[in-house]
Amino acid sequence: MPSTATLASKLVPIAARLAAGIKVDRKKIEEIAGPSMAQVAIEVLERVIPWIVTTRNGLLRCGLCGKGPFTRRGLYLHLIRVHNADIRYMIEDELERMIKVMHTYGSWKLNLK
Question: How many CA atoms within 13 Å lie on the side-chain side of 63?
């Protein structure tokens, strides 16, 4: 299993794609996180993405800086180029928090599917 920092940096492009509304295959997440951590990685992404993107009047806007409106591709590129480190830190913090909860209480506390 990769460290949380390594895993978080590898999940940034996936988070940006999902936030922009671009489809990502679950197998890609399993390749990055490994089969045992794939569900945890998906849960982390689901918790982080609402903070990354907002929609106003049906238009995509960056949830971190408020810029926009963007097309899907434009939002993806903006997130990767401008907020790469921000997203990585958000994912890393959430990963560490979830792993701590799993270690302390067990995975049943997370309601993983």
Answer: 14
